[in-house]
Amino acid sequence: MGPRASAILMKVIVLGAAGAMAAVAIRDLLQFAENVSVTAGDARPDKLLDLPLRPVRLDVQDELSTARLIEGHDVVVNCVPYPLNPNVMRAALRARVPYVDLGGLYHVTLQQFALHEEFLRQGVTAILGMGSTPGITNVMAGALAQLMDCVDEIHVRVACHDESATIHLPIPYSLDTLLDEFALEPIVFRNGQAVTVPALSGSEIVEFPAPVGRTEAFYTLHSEVAMFPRSFPGLREASFKIAFPQAFSQRMRFLVGLGFAARGNGLRGVSPREMLLALAAKQPVPVSESGPQDCDVLRVWAKGRKQGKEISGLAEAVILPHPVWKI
Length: 327
Hints:
Dihydrodipicolinate Reductase, domain 2
């Protein structure tokens, strides 16, 4: 393409840029995307001053001002807490900028699907759930589906493991999301219908590869169960289960049982959830000479038919820390 093409600059805006997931996305963009400029939007822009990007103050509750921030960019990468996804999505539509996020935990994903026709009319692309789960799991399901004429079942089993965890509550990803995953009733897809099941039900012992090994997994609310029936017409069954280290799972169950997942104001007008999020954020960052030793295992099993015969397939990914980035 020559020198002229190399001078083209892609303008990316990352929202929720001070968060842990956004930090990885920004690092990936800066290291691997050629000729890219990154605008980083967050309610705490002062936390972004040491990075080679343009920090801007963000209030995603204000859809109009968010649209103004997004306007003129080539894509918006939304990493804000998932309940705010529709706000950002509508702002991206107003600015006519392509949109991508990390997932909406089923119910918010359905709210986002409701914007499909409007995005279609405006000619704006939106890709939902491009993280790990959802994201990689959806790609794995798609790869398995390509081996079949039709897909009847897709089941996801995920494990989070951390051998270096030493703090009281070693949080593998957004605590705000984790509280909902432990507290809200999951949805499973049975006989072609969405069905609600009790929180933390469906316990099963799953044998994951090392270093996770044999551990308990249970149903939790997740976007894949909303997404798979749209991606694979005729699907009859879908589910999502997750496994955590036993000590972490026990602590989360304890906190949720005490009411710390509640979003409303409690005693003296204080939100139990907001207080927990604030206290957890003050935990010391563990330092290990050997670096992080966490691991995620993503497993997707699908069953369908090929030339009239029943077949099944399994896809699995073991996600280890980046050897250079130490994350």
